[in-house]
Write a structure and sequence with these properties.
heterodimer; A: 113 residues; mainly alpha; elongated; B: alpha+beta; Penicillin Amidohydrolase, domain 1; ten-stranded mixed β-sheet; six-stranded antiparallel β-sheet
Chain lengths: 113, 811
């Protein structure tokens, strides 16, 4: 549990101060350090899911501060329902985080163990 | 080995995906960067409420200042000197409209493709070929020659740049993030470009080429009759009883008639010829307050962010409020505590085309007065996002840039071209006019302020608290022989060149006229006995006649009355023509549905209401009739100039058997008015059925003419669809769906109690995620204009205030 709290903290900090793609870097490094050989897929999924949670949570927070105008406008720009906008944000973070985590796990397996 | 390969492949996939999501392709934005909730489009705190950022102004002000933001997000700036005042204006305008300012400048400076890709190329080519660079640079020089306009524009620029520099990338307005580019430093030249774009909108429409074709095709007698140099009927801005006691020095008309031949060219994208406005005002004797009431509504394309921006500027020597163009200092349409002014677009011809003859195959020179004059070639690089850069060669003559080329020799041995002479290319300081109007204390100051005004020609109404009221058509106007420049002119001869401008003292005006009111609606400017020629064609007189009829019908008007008049939906053209059409419509062979439609049209009250069937069908019927009369004699309206409506209308009313109704293609029959009325009715009916269904009761005007306010870039979802608003192109409420009153204002000038109301399609903020992006829409559409918080002193009522920011002068 502690390692996931650490991951979320580092992820939020990096996203706050650094460009968005540091999400990949943090996920990759996290996997390099903490992933286990037999559970790489599950670990990657968990990492991706955590990234998605952080991104969707932050998007919701900012949307609520703007009286939900952002998701409303974005949904009309994209021609979809509001929840689809959040779904899109979540899937994007999940995919990018998961791929980076897989990369980290396999790099660890191939070069560090 | 396998696990190493997998690791490398996975890492590569991850890297490439990230790169792709960070870059974007063509028109697809960088999805990762955009959707990032930490700094992408979800970060909108500053854009929704930029006012905490006011604190960065502290380090840049000379003295104390107070900025209040009212409940409509309109800034009220109270400064101790004008430099601070314009700095703060630049800052708050950028806070609300930075992206709009940047994009508008890019459009004018041929830099649109750089951020939107190939779809911007059409406009970039146009404005490059129009040589907007030359106009903007010349105007910048003019701004800088005058110390006051120099100070204002430099201070404004400073304010904009303070705001830009305070922004972190995650705080950039939404459109910057979506289109993936960064704001650049602002400069006075960018302001000059924005003003040139407005000059293009208001004076960039030219019928010269189309009229040349028409002249070539039509019998000379018919041409003279249907295209008179002075409209055969209508109304004038300057009343008929104004006399002129000067003798103009007009140039000599050449003895031979020049006929250009440009049948094949496609005209460049032109601004809407209906870009115009209404202004009207009543004198104290005709006003419920005993003092002038001045009204204005400006008709331009609707878009979000809104075209105009409301602001109140207060310093020791000015207290002015109204609407301005985002990107320019001061106020363009407004009032202060002593005067109010209102503008409409004048129709003086300030754009001419000259046919030039190249002197060699390389197009390095052209023939002028028998000599070879060098062509000036300027290279203009247009950068295209996601595409190859385009290098344009802009060729210029002493007339101006060559807009069209004809590879086939028209006359002489080498190819020819059409060069453009446009007043907006000259250096002019329109900003100074408005800055001086802002500080005017009476009508004399107002008239003095107009002397620096050049282009586009405008009809200024000015009223003051000393009960003076006047209308002053102003701007530089070339001295012409009657008809000069209405068709393409011979660019090889000096006799066709502009030689001088009409002296200010020869420009017509009406001051404290006995009719007790003044008005203009882009109609004919001057009475026929005025000795100069400005143009042959002005707007149709219907709006103007309706305004005059309403203003003269009552002894006294209140501000509410003038607001109501701005919302007047009566269609005087329909009121005049429809009875004649119905009288001439033979109902014998019509279907029962068509007969029911006629009954419905007979009971229509000529109001352009959203729920009425009349306006939509009438307009379609007229279009079909006009086309039946003129298309077989000239060609399509897109290629040929058709006569003004009043000229055709006069024939319809007085000559039911005119041979002009005959269609030469039907040799077995000679058509008369009745035939055309019926045929056009059937055409209109069938077109409407096809477009809107069989049930004519569904052809409501709000369906036929949908009022919508698109985003500047036409991004769907950022505009507003289906606004419920009536009005029609030729009614006083000149709402044409996507074009109409883009700023409305009514000012009651009472000493010590100046009151004003305004409204426009949109809101103060240019940020789509701000609640003030479109917060004035309801008031604008209903005509229940917003009462402006105007006084000499700061607003005390806390309920009207969103922000009250103070800087006490400490460093």
């Amino acid at each position: 549990m502690a390692k996931w709290i650490l991951f979320v903290s580092v992820l939020i900090l990096s996203q706050w101060f650094l460009p968005w793609y540091f999400l990949c870097f943090v996920s990759l490094v996290f996997a390099l350090i903490f992933s286990q050989e037999k559970r790489a897929f599950l670990f990657g999924l968990k990492t991706g899911f955590t990234c998605a949670l952080v991104w969707v949570g932050m998007a919701l927070l900012k949307d609520a501060n703007a009286e939900f105008l952002i998701s409303k406008k974005l949904s009309s720009v994209l021609g979809v329902e509001s929840f689809m906008v959040f779904l899109g944000v979540g899937l994007l973070a999940l995919f990018v985080g998961m791929m980076a985590s897989f990369s980290g796990s396999y790099l660890k397996r191939a070069f560090l163990t | 080995m396998t696990s190493r390969l997998i690791a490398i492949v996975l890492t590569l996939i991850s890297l490439v995906t990230t790169l792709l999501l960070n870059s974007g392709f063509g028109n697809i934005p960088p999805v990762g960067k955009v959707l990032d909730p930490f700094s992408g489009i979800w970060e909108q705190r500053l854009n929704s409420n930029p006012w905490p950022r006011l604190d960065v102004l502290r380090n840049h002000l000379k003295s104390k200042m107070r900025i209040q933001i009212d409940d409509y997000d309109i800034p009220h700036i109270y400064a101790q000197n004008n430099e601070d005042l314009y700095t703060a204006q630049g800052f708050v305008t950028a806070a609300h409209r930075l992206w709009q300012m940047d994009f508008t400048y890019r459009v004018a400076a041929s830099r649109m493709s750089e951020v939107v890709g190939e779809k911007g190329l059409r406009f970039d080519r146009l404005f490059a070929n129009l040589d907007m660079d030359r106009g903007a640079k010349n105007s910048l020089n003019a701004f800088m020659e005058n110390p006051y306009s120099k100070m204002a524009i430099e201070s404004f620029t400073k304010g904009v740049n303070i705001y830009i520099k305070s922004l972190a990338p995650d705080e950039y307005p939404f459109e910057f993030k979506l289109l993936d580019y960064e704001p650049e430093e602002w400069s006075p030249l960018k302001t000059a470009y924005i003003l040139k774009l407005m000059a293009f909108r208001l004076s960039g429409y030219s019928s010269d080429i189309k009229l040349s074709r028409t002249q070539q095709k039509l019998d000379p007698d018919l041409f003279t009759r249907f295209f008179p140099l002075y409209p055969s009927e209508g109304d004038t801005i300057i009343p008929e009883d104004i006399q002129f006691d000067f003798k103009p020095d007009l140039p000599q008309k050449p003895t031979t008639q020049f006929q250009a031949d440009w049948n094949k060219i496609k005209p460049y994208p032109q601004p809407n010829p209906r870009n115009g406005s209404n202004n009207f005002a009543v004198q104290g004797e005709k006003s419920s307050t005993g003092y002038p009431i001045v009204a204005n509504d400006v008709h331009l394309a609707y878009h979000l962010p809104a075209l105009f921006y409301g602001i109140h500027l207060r310093s020791p020597n000015q207290n002015v409020m109204g609407g301005t163009i985002p990107g320019a200092p001061g106020i363009v349409i407004g009032f202060n505590d002593r005067i109010a002014w209102a503008v409409t677009n004048g129709r003086a011809d300030v754009m001419d085309f000259y046919q030039i003859q190249y002197a060699d195959e390389e197009k390095s020179a052209y023939v002028y007065e028998g000599e070879n004059w060098p062509i000036n070639v300027k290279e203009k690089l247009i950068k295209v996002k996601g595409g190859d850069d385009v290098l344009l060669k802009v060729r210029s003559t002493h007339h101006g840039p060559i807009l069209y080329e004809n590879s086939e020799p028209i006359s002489g041995r080498f190819a020819s071209g059409l060069a453009l002479k446009w007043l907006a290319h000259e250096g002019s300081n329109e900003i100074l006019t408005f800055l001086n109007l802002n500080r005017s204390a009476n009508i004399d100051d107002c008239r003095q302020a107009l002397r620096s005004y050049v282009c586009p020609q405008q009809n200024f109404i000015c009223g003051d608290i000393e009960k003076n009221l006047g209308i002053f058509p102003f701007g530089e106007i070339p001295v012409r022989w009657p008809g000069m420049g209405r068709t393409v002119m011979d660019g090889t001869k000096k006799v066709y060149d502009w030689k001088s401008f009409i002296p200010h003292e020869h420009k017509p005006y009406a001051l404290n006229h006995p009719s007790q009111f003044v008005s203009s609606a882009n109609q004919t400017t001057y009475p026929e006995h005025y000795p100069y020629y400005w143009n042959w064609r002005f707007d149709e007189p219907f709006r103007a006649l309706r305004i005059k009829s309403v203003l003269s019908s009552r002894k006294s008007h209140t501000p509410e009355d003038l607001k109501r008049l701005q919302m007047d939906r009566k269609m005087p053209f329909a009121e005049r023509l429809l009875p004649t059409l119905l009288e001439n419509l033979d109902g014998e062979r019509l279907t029962p549905t068509q007969k029911k439609l006629i009954v419905s049209m007979e009971s229509w009250d000529y109001e352009a209401r959203t729920q009425s069937i009349g306006p939509g069908f009438f307009n379609r019927w007229w279009k079909a009739l006009e086309s039946l009369i003129w298309e077989n004699k000239l060609g399509p309206k897109s290629d040929f100039e058709y006569p003004a409506i009043v000229e055709t209308l006069s024939m319809i009313e007085n000559e039911p058997e005119s041979p002009l109704y005959d269609d030469p293609k039907t040799q077995e029959k000679i058509e008369n008015l009745k035939d055309l009325v019926k045929n056009s009715f059937i055409t209109a009916f069938s077109e409407m059925t096809k477009e809107y269904g069989d049930d004519f009761r569904q052809w409501k005007f709000q369906v036929v003419q949908e009022t919508k306010i698109p985003h500047l870039t036409r991004i769907p979802g950022l505009g507003i669809r289906q606004v419920s608003m009536g009005g029609e192109d030729m009614s006083v409420l000149a709402n044409a769906g996507t074009h109409g009153p883009a700023w409305k204002q009514v000012v009651s000038l009472v000493p010590g109690k100046v009151e004003a109301w305004a409204g426009y399609p949109g809101g103060q903020s240019g940020h789509p995620f701000s609640k003030h992006y479109d917060s004035m829409m309801t008031e604008w559409a209903s005509g229940d204009l917003v009462k402006l918080n105007f006084s000499r002193d700061p607003i005390e009522d806390a309920e009207k205030l969103a922000v009250d920011w103070k800087y006490k002068g400490e460093k």
